[in-house]
């Protein structure tokens, strides 16, 4: 049964939709302003304080366009046996270090691991394959910054959850081609966007807290002139054999419920170890919400246990 705290937060989120109406970003169409949405996300993130016990260390990744930032989020006494490589969400049209820093800090502090947060080029200005190219560039750089024995956890939320799964498929293919890249030891996908062809069962949610039609336009902008069923765009359509263990979590009250469920089912059928958690009554990316919500606290505790299991020395 959904907790009272969760219900309360959803009521607050629905009230906040009035702000989206005032900015004309509540219902998306061809006239919706992506820059306005980005500014809205940045303004909201600026109100979220950084938790104590975490240091932000900016870095420059060679090969990334000059306007893109990257940084390590580093706990005071990080575990040295592993690191987290994080692909941020934002529908492929928004997202930055500054608007994800406080959100992603929860994962770094919970696991006790250093976390690399980096930016990638965004659609519609830069459709696929820009985000994946920048992700692979950042991953290759990170390999030069850690010891050969250091284990890697790849993680992401929303579109970033789909991007981390797409990156796993690309890394698996590159390894098979003899490039010598080592795969992450495990992956965590929170509310992942896995099917940009949008063939899944719609999840009609009464009183949804998500902008209407936004997902369709994000998919359109990122796919561009590409094939929405290409595995590097929509990892649901990839060959999943050989992927490392995966942790996938979705909420029953979010638009990407079917994306997560179908990917988990296909991965299990391919012999991949999958830990799936479905949050009853939970919204998009709920594990990253504050711990006073019992469902978020439980999901993060399970993620921490999964990470420790697969990154222990």
UniProtKB/TrEMBL annotation:
Q: Give the record's keywords alphabetically.
A: Hydrolase
- Per UniProt, residues of the Alpha/beta hydrolase fold-3 domain are 84-286
Q: Does the keyword DNA repair apply?
A: no
Q: Which InterPro entries match?
A: AB_hydrolase_3, AB_hydrolase_fold, GDXG_lipolytic_enzyme
Q: Does the keyword Membrane apply?
A: no
Tell me the Gene3D superfamilies matching this sequence. alpha/beta hydrolase (3.40.50.1820)
A GO molecular function assigned to this protein is: hydrolase activity
Report the domain of life of the source organism.
Bacteria
Q: What is this protein called?
A: Alpha/beta hydrolase fold-3 domain-containing protein
């Amino acid at each position: 049964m959904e907790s009272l705290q969760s219900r309360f937060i959803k009521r607050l989120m629905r009230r906040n939709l009035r702000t989206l109406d005032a900015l004309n970003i509540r219902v998306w169409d061809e006239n919706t302003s992506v820059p306005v949405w980005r500014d809205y996300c940045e303004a909201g993130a600026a109100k979220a304080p950084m938790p104590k016990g975490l240091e932000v260390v900016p870095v420059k990744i060679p090969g990334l366009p000059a306007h893109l930032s990257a940084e390590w989020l580093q706990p005071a006494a990080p575990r040295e046996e592993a690191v987290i490589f994080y692909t941020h969400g934002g529908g492929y049209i928004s997202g930055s270090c500054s608007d994800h820093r406080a959100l992603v800090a929860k994962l770094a502090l919970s696991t006790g691991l250093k976390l690399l947060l980096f930016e990638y080029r965004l659609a519609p200005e830069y459709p696929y394959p820009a985000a994946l190219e920048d992700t692979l560039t950042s991953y290759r750089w990170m390999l030069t910054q850690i010891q050969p024995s250091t284990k890697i956890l790849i993680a992401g939320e929303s579109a970033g959850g789909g991007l981390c799964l797409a990156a796993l498929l690309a890394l698996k293919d590159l390894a098979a081609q003899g490039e010598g890249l080592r795969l992450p030891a495990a992956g965590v996908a929170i509310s992942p966007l896995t099917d940009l062809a949008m063939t899944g069962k719609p999840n009609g949610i009464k009183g949804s807290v998500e902008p209407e039609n936004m997902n369709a336009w994000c998919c359109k902008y990122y796919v561009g002139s590409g094939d929405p069923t290409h595995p590097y765009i929509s990892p649901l359509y990839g060959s999943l054999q050989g992927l490392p263990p995966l942790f996938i979590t979705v909420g029953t009250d979010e638009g990407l419920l079917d994306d997560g469920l179908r990917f988990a089912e296909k991965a299990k059928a391919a012999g991949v170890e999958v830990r799936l958690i479905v949050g009853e009554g939970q919204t998009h990316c709920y594990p990253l919400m504050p711990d006073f919500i019992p469902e978020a606290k439980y999901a993060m505790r399970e993620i921490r246990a999964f990470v420790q299991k697969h990154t222990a020395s």
